[in-house]
Structures are given as C-alpha cells and as structure tokens.
C-alpha cells in the first residue's frame, strides 16, 4: 500500500485490509459528522487531495522500492500533507475529520489491485485522523484552541499528533506483518520511530493552520502554511530520484553479471532475500537491513572480472581457474569502491568467502575479524547454493541444507548467523530455485573451493 509501504500479498494481507476498511466505516458511522457546516470538510478535503496529488506527482520516479524502503518513504510522503489532516482533527469532530482524507486517497493513483489499495489508504488515514480528533477533544483542546490559550493548547495538539502517529504506524506495521510475513519485533519499532519525529514537527504546523483558520485569514491560512511544504515536497522528490538512481545502478550491475553468467540467474536475489531474513532475526536496524539487501544482490558482482570461458566451463576447473574464481570478491570490491551509497555493503562483498577458521579468501580473516555483513552473506550464499539444482548436482532438500549448515557452524560459518537463518526458514519457509528446461545440462560455476568428494559443503 502507498501509505503503509506494504504489498497486499496473499489472503492474510487482503483480510487484514478488509478489516481495517470495515473499522473505518464503523468509526465514521458511530462518531457521526455532526451538525456543523460541510464547508470546512470540503475545503480541507480539497486541500488534502491537492497536496497528495502534488507529492505523488513529484515523487513518481517510475521505480518501486523494496517494502522496507518503501515504508520509510511512505512516512515522508504523508508527512508532507499531514498538517492538513491534523488541522482537520483540531477543527472538526472525529467523524467529520475522518472524511477529510478519503477523497484524496480514493482518487490517488495506485498499483493493482487498485480498488483495494485505495480503500486501504483511505481507511488508514481516516482512522488515524479520527483518533487524533478524539484525543484532542478528550484533552479539552477545542476550548483552549478557541481561547488561543498558549502554550496550554500545545499539549492536546501533541497528544493528537502522537495518536495519529500511533494509529497510522500500527496499521502500516500490521499490513507488513500480515502481507509480507515481516518479523513483528523489528517492524513495530521501526515504523513508529520513523514516523514519530515527522508527526511532532508537522503537528506544530497543523496547529498554526488551525489557529489562523479560526482568525481573520480563514482559508488563506492554508496557502500561507502549505507554501513552504511545497518546497519541502520538491526536496523530497529530489531524494526519491536519487534513490531511484541507486536502484538503477544496482540493477544494471546485476544484469551485467547475469548476462555474463546466465546460469546463476536469480541466485543473487535469493541470497539477498536470505540475508534479509537473517538480518531481521538479528534485529538489525532498517537502514542496515536495506544495505545488507544490496550487499546480497551484488555479492557476486566480481564475476565480471572472471574470464567468461571459466564461468561457462563444463567440467572440473584447473588450479589456475580456481585461483581466477577466488579473485571475484576482490574484483567486486574494486568495482563498487567508488559507489558511496553502498557503505557497509562493500565489506560484505569483499569478505563473503572468508571462513570462521581462517581458511577462506581473499584475506584469510577468522572469527570476529570477518565483517558482520560478510558472515551473513556467507551463510545465505551457501544455503541457496545447496538448495539450488546445478549442472553437476541436484539441489538438496531444505532440511539437509540446514543440517549441513549446523555441521559447518563454528568452522566455516558463524553459528549465530546459522541459527538465525534456521529460525527464519522455519518461521517463513523457503522456496528453492526451480530448474528451468535445459538447466540440468548447463555449465555452472562452483562456489570457488572444490567440493569434497563426500557429501560436504562447498566453500
């Protein structure tokens, strides 16, 4: 969903969205619109719709981010027009305030299934606005606002802003958990913390709009308040374009590897997905999870520096060819050295073939000397390799791969990373790569260290 940052995948997400939509309808019906004039509702609804249209138009860059990144972007997007919604919560009764965001959310562009997404967006914002209005009235905010009692009115206003933040954040986290299967331990805190500061900051602007609205400026107050927000939305659009450029850079690098080594297509995405599962089990911050996701996708970018004849060779590799393969982490690190936004991901790319016992490459690091990202990717890489069918062997069942990871924990892999992956796989399941027609006879690249003749794990 646009505001939640999640995707309505499967029955769980759809049922959750339907429940939230029903709650929003009940909220409006129970609270009622009130006996006041409709003109403030209409004006505020038009302002909200215009602000949402402007933000979405500026932020439309064509590329879609991952759920985790989208969640952070969504918080910023609704924060750009949050003052209008908070002003509605301060000026109107709960039922009337809940109607303000409906038109803008319903008319906004949305990805399929469009009707459900639009209804979800409207319900989420309606419930959050209704809650903010109810809290403001429970704290005697309308009386203090009417008498312009400052700073007393700041208390109810901040409580209303926090109520909006809490309801919107909880609903957004819920859609991620039910639709994506994300870990609740990391989702709740991440979503709420990202939205807390924008809510409080923009809440003061919403209070300013409400005060000016009740004075002689009337509707003109909206223009005075929203003008600087238009500038901020433009700045955010530039940030979105930069993020899209980052995604395009990563995609181009991955496509280059797949063109040269087409038989490992999809491997990088699966390693990235397994790395994210481990990271969430370890309760890494959302920023580190996003960086690790990129590191997993690009961990084999150094294959671009390995001769094509080696990558596509059918049969055992010679000693010289093995040495060439073992250079790919170094090649990969050199290729991404100048890409500043990768940050910690670069070390993961360089050292993902190190071993806990120091027998890995390229630097022979051991134990805690190996960067955390590299220790995560090493487990994810080996797990996907074992469960994927290659030209020289069939993929192992997930249970056998898990057993092998446990056997190699402490010597080849970090036991903490192995345990995290096992917990994540048991909770969320894992779908190994399915061989395509003709893949069984296609040449493939071993992991870089000869596989032992017995049932062992490649390095």
From TrEMBL:
Keyword Transmembrane part of the UniProt annotation: yes
Ranges of residues in domain HD-GYP: 242-437
Positions of the UniProt region annotated as Disordered: 430-459
Keyword NAD: no
InterPro entries: HD/PDEase_dom, HD_GYP_dom
Keywords: Membrane, Transmembrane, Transmembrane helix
Chain segments annotated as transmembrane: 15-47, 59-79, 85-107, 119-139, 159-179, 191-213, 219-237
PANTHER family membership: CYCLIC DI-GMP PHOSPHODIESTERASE PA4108, CYCLIC DI-GMP PHOSPHODIESTERASE PA4108-RELATED
Name of the protein in question: HD domain-containing protein
Source species of the chain: Streptacidiphilus jiangxiensis
């Amino acid at each position: 969903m646009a505001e939640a940052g999640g995707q309505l995948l499967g029955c769980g997400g759809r049922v959750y969205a339907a429940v939230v939509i029903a709650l929003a309808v009940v909220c409006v019906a129970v609270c009622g619109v009130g006996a006041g004039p409709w003109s403030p509702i209409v004006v505020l609804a038009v302002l909200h719709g215009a602000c949402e249209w402007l933000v979405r138009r500026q932020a439309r860059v064509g590329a879609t981010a991952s759920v985790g990144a989208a969640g952070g972007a969504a918080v910023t997007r609704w924060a750009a027009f949050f003052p209008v919604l908070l002003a509605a919560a301060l000026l109107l009764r709960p039922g009337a305030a809940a109607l303000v965001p409906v038109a803008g959310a319903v008319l906004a562009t949305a990805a399929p299934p469009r009707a459900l997404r639009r209804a979800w967006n409207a319900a989420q914002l309606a419930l959050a606005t209704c809650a903010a209005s109810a809290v403001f009235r429970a704290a005697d905010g309308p009386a203090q606002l009417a008498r312009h009692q400052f700073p007393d009115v700041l208390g109810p206003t901040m409580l209303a802003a926090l109520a909006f933040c809490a309801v919107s954040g909880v609903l957004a986290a819920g859609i991620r958990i039910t639709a994506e299967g994300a870990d609740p331990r990391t989702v709740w805190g991440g979503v709420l913390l990202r939205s807390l500061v924008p809510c409080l900051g923009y809440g003061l602007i919403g209070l300013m709009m409400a005060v000016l609205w009740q004075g002689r400026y009337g509707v003109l107050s909206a223009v005075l308040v929203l003008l600087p927000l238009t500038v901020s939305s433009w700045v955010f659009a530039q940030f979105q374009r930069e993020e899209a450029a980052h995604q395009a850079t990563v995609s181009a690098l991955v496509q280059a590897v797949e063109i040269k080594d087409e038989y490992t297509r999809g491997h990088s995405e699966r390693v990235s997905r397994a790395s994210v599962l481990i990271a969430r089990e370890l309760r890494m911050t959302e920023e580190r999870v996003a960086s690790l996701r990129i590191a997993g996708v690009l961990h084999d970018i150094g294959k671009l520096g390995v001769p094509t004849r080696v990558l596509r060779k059918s049969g055992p590799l010679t000693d010289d060819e093995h040495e060439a393969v073992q250079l790919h982490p170094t090649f990969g690190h050199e290729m991404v050295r100048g890409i500043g936004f990768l940050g910690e991901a670069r070390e993961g790319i360089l050292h993902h073939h190190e071993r806990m016992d120091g027998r890995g490459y390229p630097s022979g690091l051991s134990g805690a000397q190996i960067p955390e990202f590299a220790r995560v990717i090493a487990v994810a890489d080996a797990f996907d390799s074992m469960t994927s069918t290659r030209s020289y062997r069939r993929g192992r069942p997930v249970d056998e791969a898990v057993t092998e990871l446990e056997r190699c924990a402490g010597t080849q892999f970090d036991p903490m990373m192995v345990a995290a992956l096992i917990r994540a796989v048991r909770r969320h399941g894992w779908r190994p790569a399915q061989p395509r027609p003709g893949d069984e006879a296609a040449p493939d690249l071993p992991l870089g260290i000869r596989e032992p003749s017995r049932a062992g794990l490649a390095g």
